[in-house]
Amino acid sequence: MSRILYNMIKDQPQSLTKKGFIHIVKKGDLFSRLSILSMSARYDNSCSSSGGRREIHPYGIGNNHLSGICHTWSSDGRCVSLLKILMTNICSNDCKYCVNRVKNDVPRAVLTPEEIAYLTVEFYRRNYIEGLFLSSGIIKDPDYTMELMLKAVRTLRSKYYFNGYIHLKLIPGASKELVTEAFLLADRVSSNLELVKEENLKRLAPQKSFSLLYTPLKIVRELYEERNLKAPASTQIIVGVTSETDKDILSLAKKFYQEKMVRRVYYSAYIPVNEDGDLPTIEDPPFLREHRLYQADWLLRFYGFDLDELFGGDEYLPLQMDPKSAWALRNLHFFPVELTKADYWELIRVPGIGPISAKKIIKARKESFLTEETLKKLGIPLKRAKYFVTIKGRPLFKTLKFSERLIKNQLKDTQLDLFRGMTPY
Ligand code: SF4
Q1: What is the dihedral of CA 223, 225, 230, 231, to 10 degrees?
Q2: With the C-alpha atoms ordered 319, 321, 323, 326, is the resulting torsion angle positive or negative?
């Protein structure tokens, strides 16, 4: 084991150095450690997507690996591919839902700051990635861990002059100075809340508390307001690991958006990786529920919907239908919307019509008469919208029996194709 690696982990609890960990650090080369640390990072959704499940074919080209590269979007809308890794999957915390919890007997590995910088630059030069997503388990204490992560970023920025995108995970409990430096060096920072209620956090992540997790986000918000330099942070909430409802989750997200605490909340379907009496037994991860939360989040942020409008008295979003269609069916008195007259905010309430389509409609009707043909030429999807709109008083969906049940059945058929074969949770 190299001296640098040894120094990084020498004070860890004995349990971490008993089994897989020593083995992999002694015998593993850089790439076996990289493999462990990219696999360990795959449950973090807060940099968007990663990996698929296709097996590697010996005669094929391409590698759809489970982990390693993920994608995000830069401020100008470009899709950026990132090397997504942990600095180490050694962690002194015992979060019950996490594969890296201290009690798990899994192969452990660590990369030095120099190795992280080297790998990022080499992958960048080979055109595999355009940036880095770096997180870590907690070794020794939060400041020590954050300092090592920052060392990797400092090396990248000042030794290699790396000007690419860096997303850095803030370590809860790290000092204000280190969080400030992370904010200044990285393009995006994040701190995961994971759960919505303090009592659940205490039960499932005993070393964490809300004040610990909120603090880095608050520091970043202050810095953002003071300097108006960059966008604030993002966070992630796990869906389905406790009894927290969709409304609980979105209430917190809404509060965070209103307080400008985060720019983006990510929702992550709970994937069981550990056995523990405090964890639920589920057959399939609640991906459909996660998807509905993203849709509702979007409606809250960009469509002017209020939380209560999305739930209509329930605690959960409907799974069979997107939240905007479900709202439309509960509020048929709002429809039909007359496309030649409706304003922007009325148009975007129509299922199937988003901000881009609404702007196209408003522009088109200023220039000429609006017809169904015009809408098709503009590329406006009418699959769902046709049940809710009229043009010059004429409905686009022609039927003798126009009823809530009929629309509901039609919409259900158009919506679940993506999720066929997936068990709604
Ligand atoms: S702090 Fe908790 S969630 Fe983060 S790596 Fe450690 S055990 Fe996992």
Answers
A1: 110
A2: negative
Give the distance between the most distant pair of CA atoms in the chain.
80
| 98, 103, 202: residue to mutate for ligand 1 pocket, most atoms within 8 A of CB | 98
Q: Rounded to an integer, what distance in angstroms lies between the CA atom of residue 206 and that of residue 376?
A: 56
Residues of the chain with CATH 3.30.750.200: 191-304
pLDDT tens per residue across span 308-334: 999 989 999 999 899 999 999 999 899
- Determine the Cα–Cα distance for residues 17 and 27; give it in Å rounded to an integer: 14
User: Which CATH class, in words, describes the domain spanning 191-304?
Assistant: alpha beta
Q: Classify domain 1-56+64-188 at the CATH topology level.
A: Transcription Regulator spoIIAA (3.30.750)
Q: How far is the CA of 40 from the centre of ligand 1 (A)?
A: 10
Task: Tell whether ligand 1 has an atom less than 6 A from the beta carbon of residue 385.
Answer: no
Of 136, 132, 270, nearest in space to 194 by CA: 270
Q: Which atom of ligand 1 is nearest to the CA of 205?
A: 2
Q: Pick the residue with more confidence: 359 or 34?
A: 359
Verify whether ligand 1 is closer than 6 Å to residue 108 (CB atom).
no
Q: How far apart are CA 75 and CA 168, in angstroms?
A: 16
Ligand 1: distance of its center to the CA of 92 in Å? 8
Structure tokens at 201: 């956090």
Q: Is 172 in the pocket of ligand 1 (CB under 6 A)?
A: no
Pairing of strands 131-135, 79-86: parallel
Residue 252 reports pLDDT greater than 90: yes
**Is any atom of ligand 1 closer than 6 Å to the C-beta of 101?**
yes
For ligand 1, atom 4, name the residue with the nearest CA. 137
Question: According to the model, what pLDDT value does residue 337 have?
Answer: 94
Atom 1 of ligand 1: nearest residue by CA position: 93
Residues carrying CATH 3.30.750.210, the chain: 1-56+64-188
